[in-house]
Amino acid sequence: MLSRxxxxxxxxxxxxxxxxxxxxxxxxxxxxxxxxxAKGYYSMPENQQEGYFEALQQKAHAVSEKFPGRAEPLIWxxxxxxxxxxxxxxxxxxxxxxxxxxxxxxxxxINPNALNGSALTSxxxxxxxxxxxxxxxxxxxxxxxxxxxLKINPDGIDPNFFYGEFLSIRGDKAGAIEHLQKALAxxxxxxxxxxxxxxxxxxxxxxxxLQH
Length: 212
Known about the structure:
The protein contains nine helices and no strands. It has helices at 2-42, 46-66, 71-87, 90-110, 114-129, 139-152, 157-169, 173-184, 193-211. It starts with a helix and ends with a helix.
């Protein structure tokens, strides 16, 4: 009886260790994608960005396939795919943006709170950044997603930045400045120093434009 109990405990411990190992592996893969995105978006020469993000998108897709049913890889595949659309021609960008939206919607359905609501933040930015065609260019949807993201992560740098940018486009200068200043004061994200530095530069640039 004791031997059987011991075997059960050992089996349970091995399952736990396997789960922790898989989580660590996924976390490492996502961190690699995050640093890759920051490098491509903030440091890569403009004439190299499309090719760079095409390769990074393929890498992100492989991570999503390796960890099916998890929202986090889908979020980063969606973010990288939407960034790729920014550097593509008008003939390719629309389809790529739709693909990004579908990935982020899939992540939202799995877990809208994953990565502090990053799927919602990214969906909100897509709906106001992508020109009006099909189902894009929808400011009501953009506002809805960004408000939901802010409820999950009210002090975060990204939801406040994108909501501030959105409000500036909508002509709400005071509201935009309020959220941009909040974004600038957001607590640093451990391991995301490269992205934080680039984002703060964007925030300062937009604030300077709005305040002068």
